[in-house]
Amino acid sequence: MLSKRHLLAALGLCLTLSLASFAYAADKKPFTAAAFEAAQAGGKPILIDVSASWCPTCKAQAPILSKLMGDPRFKGVVAFNVDYDSQKDVLKRFNVQRQSTLVVFKGKQEAGRSTGDTNPASIEALLAKGI
């Protein structure tokens, strides 16, 4: 049987994860070719986050990315969201086959990518390749 304390702790965790996901969602920009090319021209580190609203892995990645994007080391990273269901042309451009794909660029060069990863340490290492 769950005690009040366990129930409150679980509710608190759910709220924290929801707020972290929201904070990251607010920082992501919808992908546009013009914005992406401008970030590349400026030599910015870039994160392409391919996600779908129905994807549990994408939902698990969101609070991890939110926390990392709040880290001063990743302050300059420009994050773009690509909707897996509606932006098929962008998926083709980046040769992405599945949702929950993260692609990192260092300026104009792709520095790394992962699909389906929910390990905070490896996502952090991937982001670090862009800076």
* CA-atom Rg in angstroms: 16 Å
Question: What's the domain count?
Answer: 1
User: Could you say which structural class the secondary elements and strand pairing correspond to?
Assistant: alpha/beta
Instruction: Specify the number of helices.
Output: 5
Main pleated-sheet profile:
5 strands, mixed
Helix content: 40-55%
CATH topology: Glutaredoxin
Task: Give the CA-CA distance, first to last residue.
Answer: 48 Å
CATH class: Alpha Beta
What is the 3D shape? globular
What CATH architecture would you give? 3-Layer(aba) Sandwich
Strand order of the largest sheet: 1-3-2-4-5
Q: Output the helix-strand order.
A: HEHEHEHEEH
Uncertain runs are 13-26
Count of individual beta strands: 5
**How big a fraction of the residues is strand?**
15-25%
- Residue-averaged pLDDT, rounded? 86
Q: Give me the CATH superfamily.
A: Glutaredoxin
